Amino acid sequence: MCWFLEQEAAGEAGFEDLTALVQVRMPIRPKLEPARNYWDEMGHGREPGMHGPMLAHLVHALGLEPRPDRTVWQSLALANTLAGLAFHRHLAVSCDRCAGCDRTDGVGQGGNGCRRAETFGRRAG
């Protein structure tokens, strides 16, 4: 479990920041889907519920030391892909689709994240 958490933390791309960046100047309708995800990532407006700091606190509490040189390439590639897609406006929808699959297809999610991300992509065009 510790290895998995180190992989997750080392590949953390600042999801809430990427989601905010992707929404800049996006049309209203497609902006709503990532906005819902952003609100969840931001703990519904409550600092203790924010996902990024929760992961950071867990890593600290367990004494983990995530480092890129001990991180599998897939985790690093995901972080780099999300950041690259977010910084290119014409690829913003792809970033949100990719992030939706990453964030919501964890254990117990049954693949619903990719379906929701694909729905967002159809709405966004």
Structural class: mainly alpha
**β content, as a range?**
under 5%
What oligomeric assembly is this protein in? Answer: single chain
Sheet with the most strands, sense and barrel status:
none
Given as residue ranges, the uncertain stretches (5+ residues, pLDDT < 50) are 104-114
Q: Percent of residues in helical segments? A: 55-70%
Which radius of gyration do the C-alpha atoms yield? 15 Å
Distance between the termini: 39 Å
Number of strands: 0
SSE pattern, N- to C-terminal = HHHHHHH
Shape: flat
Continuous helix count = 7
Averaging pLDDT over every residue, what do you get? 76
Quickly describe the structure:
Helices cover 66% and strands 0% of the residues. The chain has 125 residues and is mainly α.
What's the helix and strand layout?
Layout: H1 2-10, H2 15-22, H3 28-41, H4 51-61, H5 73-86, H6 92-104, H7 112-124
Helix pairs in contact: 2-3, 2-6, 3-7, 5-6, 6-7
